[in-house]
Design the sequence.
């Protein structure tokens, strides 16, 4: 099936029609992204800074670019002028650098704090205690060029649906608890980014507002 058929098929399986689809376009060429764009997709996810820069320069300017990989602090400056949302902020150091580069670019950059919910060592993220310390820290309160709009998490890569559901439910619970706290004006908690091609239905059932889907739209990745 082509991209058009894949998108239609995907949308028909959405449990929550209001959940935002972020098309994960990493490793796919600009003309493939343009095909999805012409079918109405506006949110695209990339995980490599250089590839993202090249695509942003070549493609329509109303695309909302999401950085979904592990972002290094020394690379923030390259995407700060245009990035729509940074999904995987997992340290105060990275958040501080995003704030610094956003200020230089004259912008406020939306961010999601990445929470470690999986039973896998390879995943990044803050645990619940680290998240609590971060959001309550004096350092975060002074960051006026970032807006923390929610949380992001990745479930364990497993066929056990109960494990995946439990992890997503845990993230939703952490999000709900966070919303009850008195937070500063650079917080506007409204998004839970969880769910990918293999588990987006479970994620939506457990409260996801944003899913990151690549393979189910574009097919297998094209590695260079």
Sequence:
């Amino acid at each position: 099936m082509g991209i058009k058929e894949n998108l239609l098929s995907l949308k028909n399986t959405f449990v929550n029609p209001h959940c935002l689809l972020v098309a994960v376009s990493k490793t796919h060429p600009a003309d493939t992204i343009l095909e999805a764009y012409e079918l109405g997709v506006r949110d695209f996810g990339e995980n490599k800074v250089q590839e993202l820069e090249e695509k942003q320069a070549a493609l329509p300017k109303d695309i909302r670019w999401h950085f979904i990989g592990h972002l290094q602090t020394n690379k923030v400056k390259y995407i700060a002028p245009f990035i729509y949302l940074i999904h995987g902020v997992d340290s105060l150091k990275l958040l501080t650098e995003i704030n610094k580069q956003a200020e230089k670019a004259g912008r406020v950059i939306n961010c999601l704090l990445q929470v470690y919910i999986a039973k896998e060592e390879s995943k990044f993220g803050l645990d619940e205690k680290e998240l609590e310390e971060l959001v309550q820290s004096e350092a975060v309160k002074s960051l006026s060029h970032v807006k923390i709009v929610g949380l992001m998490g990745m479930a364990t890569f497993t066929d056990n649906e109960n494990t995946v559901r439990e992890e997503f439910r845990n993230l939703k619970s952490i999000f709900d608890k966070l919303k009850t706290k008195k937070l500063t004006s650079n917080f506007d908690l409204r998004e839970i980014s969880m769910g990918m091609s293999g588990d987006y239905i479970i994620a939506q059932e457990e409260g996801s507002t944003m899913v990151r889907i690549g393979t189910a739209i574009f097919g297998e990745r094209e590695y260079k």
Q: What stands out?
A: The chain has a mean pLDDT of 94. The chain has one domain: 3-218.
